[in-house]
Amino acid sequence: MATSVVHRFLRLLHGVAPWRSSFHHCEITALSQSLQPLWKLPFRAFRTDARKVHTAPARTTFLLRPLPILLATGGGYAGYRQYEKYRERELEKLGLEIPPKLAGHWEVALYKSVPTRLLSRAWGRLNQVELPHWLRRPVYSLYIWTFGVNMKEAAVEDLHHYRNLSEFFRRKLKPQARPVCGLHSVISPSDGKILNFGQVKNCEVEQVKGVTYSLESFLGPRTYTEDLPFPPAASCDSFKNQLVTREGNELYHCVIYLAPGDYHCFHSPTDWTVSHRRHFPGSLMSVNPGMARWIKELFCHNERVVLTGDWKHGFFSLTAVGATNVGSIRIYFDRDLHTNSPRHSKGSYNDFSFVTHTNREGVPMRKGEHLGEFNLGSTIVLIFEAPKDFNFQLKTGQKIRFGEALGSL
Length: 409
What we know:
- By secondary structure, the chain is α+β, with helices and mostly antiparallel strands.
- The protein is built from eleven helices and 19 strands.
- It has helices at residues 2-16, 22-35, 66-93, 105-112, 116-127, 133-147, 165-169, 215-219, 236-243, 289-294, 298-301, and strands at residues 44-47, 52-55, 186-187, 192-199, 204-208, 211-214, 249-257, 265-267, 272-280, 304-311, 314-321, 329-331, 350-353, 363-365, 370-374, 379-387, 391-392, 399-400, 405-408.
- Strands 4, 7, 9, 10, 11, 13, 14, 16 and 18 form a nine-stranded antiparallel β-sheet that branches. A three-stranded antiparallel β-sheet has the order 3-19-17, with no helix packed on it.
């Protein structure tokens, strides 16, 4: 159809000007050659009042492609963030203190819009897929090489023993691999890196130096029940004061970050009794030290399980904070706990009391006893009451292993 239209047009030119010379014939031939590419274009027909007309679809010379633009923008932003981290590390080497640059509200909102809960559930399903026997060693060896896992400490060193990634992440240690310090009253509940520690001041807890989160937002409001002898707090100071049950005591905290290559189980840090559990469904943002320096109240945004109770000096709590791909938090003695579940919505919390009419004390835990586990690296936060002469045996940023001393009187 396209060819016949062009031929008619050329014959029309010849018919209108038969007297033209051969020079004009060459012009028409050149025009014919220039119109030849149009023959291959798909023509569309549409009807007007007079006759049927054929036209070729319009072709744009420039098309906006959202995926390359998104990748370029995201890559540029990630590159800028990496440069900022590199510059901060270089300044720290020179002994210069760098004030933290906090994320804006729009940056936090954008991050929280990422479906990390759904992705973490998908990751959890993937972890439970049984690997073929021949594939286990290559997969686990790659993970060991990437994150520096020390398999000599594992109770079972044979990589073929672990049927899936979940079993490998939750591997047990040899009994002698982590001796429990008996000289100090509080030990590290897990392997990890010390992000911060010290006294809680003005109801604000430091997740890293210079970046804080609200004590009440993190632990949740104190609800008066027969199992929780804490009346509702009228102010920030009264909330802190009701946690300190004995005169002359102070409130202390310690933050331990578990990297993906660390031992993923956590243990009881002291002799205490767990009386209550509070589960906060929430986001599952990364909790690595870089993010902790960037997002204020990061631990309050994320999903977490708060265990509260008492030890010999008063109030004691241990909080397991979830992270990206770490939606699964397991407490061994709490079979009713289900984290990162679609039935739980963000912004709420679920309480459970271990104090019953038949058990008026709760769940007793011995120092070093198995308490729970993560599916991947995450964070443990201890908040507890102790006398004013309590001293931490720590340095910020140091690596620590389960069973080593955190502090003592």
